[in-house]
Queue: 2 jobs
Job 1
Amino acid sequence: MNWEEIDKSAKLWIKEAGDRINNSFEKTLHIETKSNANDLVTDIDKATEKFFISKINEKFPDHKILGEEGFGDELNELTGVVWIIDPIDGTMNFVHQKRNFAISIGIYENGVGKIGLIYDVVHDELYHAIKGEGAFLNERPLRKLSSVPVSEAVIGLNSTWVTANRRIDPTILASLVRDVRGTRSYGSAAIEMAYVASGRLDAYITLRLSPWDFAAGIILVEEVGGVASTLKGEPIDFLNQNSVFISKPGFHDVVLKEYLRDGKW
Ligand code: IPD
Ligand code: CA
Ligand code: CA
Ligand code: CA
């Protein structure tokens, strides 16, 4: 497998897709809803996914594609080379703010993450990791992560998960929120994972994400020594929805043991 060629192509295409998105800002967005009134998708999400699919099919016809908007392949397994793509992660931000969204691409071989790319289009920040070769922000190497005490941690967490809801007991996460230094919510799982990889956040916790939300982020975070698991501490399943807890090492063990272990996630 020519990973250098795959990497070069992925970087070129993600920048080109970002330019197209930037150029779309003057045009009127066509917005639709999906599973509920707050689950948005636009013509630009769809066009971006189709852009990647046509590029990949042309250059790497034997690679498979799993994309959020469903224009790729239907996959029950991760054999061969699979591109897991979220064309716009943070569509609500894209629609409401025109910022704080990202393109996320994770490239896997037989289920093993090889290349992760997260492109924060408006800030022109490209996070990029190649398994075994390090992680970079706009080509500058990212430092290895080390632990942080709970009392000094700033964690990414959506406030939904500390309100009463039918899925979980919110008091468990509320006690973590009380003990950490602060919480942040950026509205894009990919950006929040890229922030953990670059040390801007110490952890990111969420109850439900799909493979395209975390495929790239987990490669990035693990490449700098971070840890990824479900909230139960189990391995992430890359073909299904999961709860996700990614963080600096050390901190991950402490939070699992002292806070999350008792939850029915
Ligand atoms: C969403 C964002 C959001 C997260 C949601 C995701 P989308 O992805 O990552 O931050 O809380 O669970 O579905 O739909 O904007 O690609
Ligand atoms: Ca979506
Ligand atoms: Ca997403
Ligand atoms: Ca999306």
Job 2
Amino acid sequence: GLAILATSFLLLRMLAFFLARTQFPPGPCPLPILGNLLQLRFQLHPEKLSQLTRKYGSIFTVWLGSTPVVVLNGFQAVKDALVTHSEDFADRPVTPLFEDLFGDKGIISTSGHAWQQQRRFGLITLRALGMGKKVLEQRLQEEAQYLVEIFHRQNGTSFDPHVPIVRAAANVICALVFGHRFPHGDPFFQELMKAIDFGLAFVNTIWRRLYDAFPWLLRQLPGPHRKIFRYQEIVKSLICQEIERHKQRVPEDLEDFISCYLAQITKRKDDPASTFDEENLIQVIIDLFLGGTETTATTLRWALLYMIHHRDVQGEVQQELDTVLGPSRVISFKDRKLLPYTNAVLHEVQRFCSVISVGAVRKCGTATTVQGFPIQKGTIVLPNLASVLCDPEHWETPWQFNPGHFLDGEGNFVIHEAFLPFSAGHRVCLGELLAKVELFLVFAHLLREFRLRAPAGASTNERDYILWGTKQPRPYDICPLELGPRSPGLPSCLTPP
Ligand code: HEM
């Protein structure tokens, strides 16, 4: 009797599962419980997803366990969903881990009224600090100069630029939110970086996947997943110290994110619809670190790697920087208009490395239709941004590093409609402008100062990558040779052993 009951239950579950499938765009056949996880080798690899388009078209469904995820591939499908139906896809799905970590606070994992208020304020404040008052640009120039100093200090020896670049990107966020940078040895900064590094690494572990698959179990069990909550408490207490320091300051001093936010809390204190409070402030700061550190740092690491591989491109950038800026003029963001080739190279770096390949998941908030497929409310949607940045219908040489994608016949910079590394629509990256200023200033500062080479005998592959949250290059060493009259000759790392 029990066996018949169990078999019927199983059959009913399978029937429900296969009926559910018919409500989503067709895709590879899922297994019960595991869905397509085995086929995908437990990872949403951009190339694997692009391969599936050959069989199922630009919109298909994959099942991550029992969760259906509609994947959008290529420029047209992504544009149709995120731009044409922007409002319908403005929500973000929240996994159990993110729910336990962030609750309904901050920007990255919230939706609805709270998200709208926090995001709007974030955008306005970033614009005011960055473009209006220009305090941010000065701090970015300072940070770029610190990085130049670190490269100088290598004194001709080769080194892995990973750590200094990540620290520089984190210091940019420190400058934005706290109003100042930190020396790399500062205990506060070191603790903050340890926690951020741990958080970003944890996202890629099996423990994160297990937590999201079996939250009811993992919430009760001890294990390495507990550490993420401990690190979160450390980060929160570090941020609280900075908030307390800001409260002692003159209220008119609105030169960083915390001061602006504290003023906003006071301004809106009698508004019952206000979501401005210190808990939200802390989470927004964590979001700025999560969104703005690894992404920009990884893009810069790709940029330097591409320059090692494409010495002709590097040479042209340096020539343009020399001719337009000379060796000592302060570099500012508006200079990019005078530097069309350098600007095109940076855009091509972002296109070719597609740092956030398939990370920006959305949730359908209102039932809608994308390219003829009905999408139900609540469906999770995954735009494959890498497939947009390499869409053969939109890029002349999608698989080659080619700054010509962003130049017209006269050498003027031209933007391309399929350039969407920051995604698009209502939830487009909040830090797009800051990231662009940072990438430009750091890249121009480094290339004006150094000729970049791989150390003698080193072999690196610009197409090889590790999918570690962002799409990362494999670790590599770089040999910076000082340019101009300061350069005495070949540094030791370029001399064959
Ligand atoms: C969201 C890319 C730098 C803060 C995103 C998204 C992408 C992205 C693809 C997802 C958007 C979506 O849901 O469709 C990048 C890249 C960067 C970069 C490629 C650098 C090269 C930054 C910086 C900051 C930042 C510097 C901080 C100042 C955020 C935040 C969100 C976000 C807060 C969430 C927005 C929301 O959910 O409303 N970014 N980002 N990002 N980014 Fe960036």
